[in-house]
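Narrative summary of target 7.
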Amino acid sequence: MKQYYILALLIVLTACSKKETTDAPFDAFVYSFTDSQNNFSIKFTSGDTVYMQKRQGLLKKNFYALATASDKDSIIALTGKVDFTAYEKSPEAPKAKDGVAIKFYTIKDGKERSVYAFSVSNSEKLFPLAVKFTEFAKRFNFEPIDKNVDFGDLQYIELPISPPSGTVN
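Modeled conformation, tokenized:
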């Protein structure tokens, strides 16, 4: 009989325990990178899932990985270094069709913010931060996933598809 009381007490204590809440300052944070060889995005969620999409022309492949508690702390610290307010007043448009482009995109409570950086642009100081994101993402063991993942606004990151040759406009 004593065992039933202990079991009931454990169930009550477990049910009343404080559930883990996320302290992420975002619902989703996306880092995107493109150059002549690579075109990818990495999406950090407020939970423990990290998504990646690799793009080559029309071909898009999605992957996922699970972040540990330590990874989540690192993600929050790294995403906190992106100063969206420093670039909101003068959004850049790409100056060239080749080179390197990066984009940081975040959404929190329905509010979207983004910042771009392009080769030889006024926001080049974002590139060292992009390197940190790329290096951090190499920690994860991404697995393929057949799920449609929203990576937000990829304007200036997804390369335009050339019309078939012989097409006249």
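The radius of gyration is 21 Å.
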